[in-house]
Amino acid sequence: MRILSAAAKLFDTYGYKGTSVRQIAAEAQVNSALISYHFQGKQGVLETLIASYFETLFRLLEEQETMQEHVSAIQRLEQVIQLYLHFQMEHAPITRLIHRELSVESMLAREVMTLYMSRWKHGLSRVLEGGVAAGDFLPVSIDRIVLAVSSQMIYPFLQPQMVRQVYDLEPFSEEFARWLQDSIMRFLHGILLPA
Q: What domains are there in the chain, each with its CATH number?
């Protein structure tokens, strides 16, 4: 855990390529051989961080879904968005790291998109499709809605310095999370719900 925590902090500060195994070991206060032993190197540390992040998120979503039997489609959608936003806030350094790595064409980016981002998209799509099938939502292009909502949810956590300096907002505050969730839900109400 110390190695993973140290790596997440350093990757966030210096980027994956700008961080060495020696720096991770020093930050974690361990021998650098332990990184090779436990993770087969820096790439293994990164892959473990990403896998742990998404597996935790998906577990939380599954737990939430089991408690939503008698919840309306729009309430279910709002709860999923709230969970996504708060999870990203609580795991901001890894969220940024993942989305930075996804912006670079690589084998790792392709694997993350195949294994995790498609599953992330599917989770949000399933809620929207359920609402459309039940007649609670207007028939819409699910992929376009998911793309628009994903963009709104990811950008502030990918570019927190931009949000702070240009828009004078603190992206990791509870107030910002509530505002962003309300903004996304107003957008969705306008598109999904009959007038």
A: 46-192 (1.10.357.10)
